[in-house]
Fold this sequence. Notes:
Elements lengths: L1 E4 L14 H9 L3 E5 L10 H7 L2 E3 L2 H7 L2 E3 L6 H4 L7 E4 L7 H10 L2 E4 L14 H18 L21 E5 L3 H12 L3 E6 L2 H10 L4 E5 L2 H7 L5 E4 L25 E4 L20 E4 L2 E4 L9 H22 L1 H7 L1 H4 L2 E4 L2 E2 L2 H7 L7 H4 L1
Parallel strand pairs: 1-2, 1-4, 2-3, 4-5, 5-6, 7-8, 7-10, 8-9, 10-11, 11-13
Antiparallel strand pairs: 6-14, 12-13, 14-15
Amino acid sequence: MIIGVPKEIKNNENRVALTPAGVTELLKRGHEVHVQATAGEGSGFTDDSYKEAGANILPTIEATYQKAEMIMKVKEPIEAEYSLIKKDQLLFTYFHFASYEPLTHAMIKSGAVCLAYETVEKANGTLPLLIPMSEVAGRMSIQQGAKFLEKPMKGRGILLGGVPGVRPAKVMILGGGVVGTEAAKMAAGLGADVIILDLSLPRLRYLDDVMPANVKTLMSNEYNIRELIKDHDLIIGAVLIPGAKAPKLITKDMLKEMRPGTVMVDVAVDQGGCFETTKPTTHQDPVFIIDDVIHYCVANMPGAVPYTSTLALTNATLPYAIQLAGKGWKTACKENNELKLGLNVINGKVVYQAVSEAFNLDYTDVNTFLN
């Protein structure tokens, strides 16, 4: 198969979808890999390193899309890329369709096959291609939250871990999944007073067993959330419903109950966000303030640490890319249900239920294309 790796052009996105090591693995199996010039520079991989691995370097993004049967990316295509996508071309990347209707319609119009990293799902319900970036984003949410709690950043002026004789900051984490767990580890390690809210009692029991003593658990409901926001300094939104919009757990009216300088970090922004006041921001301009509450809503948080993020992501995606390239997407998805669940849009039809429900679009059973 002919594989193309374009340079990411979303604001401050420095990750790349394939490392030189990944190029080597694909070439060993008889595939052809074309990488756009400078695609890996943001992650620390030079064009020469790709050439040494056997990739062909193409000068432009247009040439990369034109050449490839399968496009490997990190972030969803942005408007400048829509017209470059060809009918029947396989796109293997993060899409997060349910949070952005124009992208959904553009991919329907393109006639391409869209296989989304975020909905590839194992039999036990885990999301293997979302986990590595969730781990990065969860840890980064505390790093960024701690920074914006500083007074020069308009925060409350509180040190996350406190010092002897001064209480630490209070951190509230909405969601006990991968993001929430990693955020709790980081916050606890810095000495903060942490509470995790989740709807699942089995998950809360597990977290209660494995977390250190400065992490508490609580059932997630509106009453508990409204009580906690009054005195918590940093609030992390870490809720995920695979492929669907995130529920709005912090409403606009709740902001008036928070102390000035409270920081909210919405890691669920890719899926529409779990704060009612969320709107996507960038690393260039990461925060905005409503009712004296700081909102950090960067939609590609791991893009700020691209070396770590690229290696973590490609460790997870490469085995699936090898299957898709070796067997073609139809056979690979027939034989591997994890990949089949990643299919969101095929040849102009929405084949993922949560995406069709998000925008009241017609739904087509994915098996229609696989039989």
